[in-house]
Model the fold of this input.
Amino acid sequence: MRPIRLTSFGHLHLPTGPDGSPIPPVADRIEDVRDRLRDPAARDILDLGGLDPRVQGVVLATPGARELLANLADYADLPAGPSRIAIGCAGGRHRASGLTELL
Done:
């Protein structure tokens, strides 16, 4: 299997082009999880980041997270699969970075 570059990012922090539209990272697949895997009750992780096992646990416990990770892993294993996958949420600190670490 060839190496795959994983990137996590926050849509709210993307640079903008001359027309003001956001410029996403370069990737073969960009997974937007802003409207998915959201758990507004998980207030106790707000000061933590995706490297923290508690954040990863909350993200993994969110409905749909395991299926998304399985889908991304299957995609990465394709013979002509990607060399770059980017996962973005709103701020880039919890869901995106947690998923990237879990992947």
Q: What stands out?
A: The chain has one domain: 5-13+29-102. The two ends are 15 Å apart (CA to CA). Residues 65-76 form the longest helix (12 residues). The longest strand covers residues 5-10.
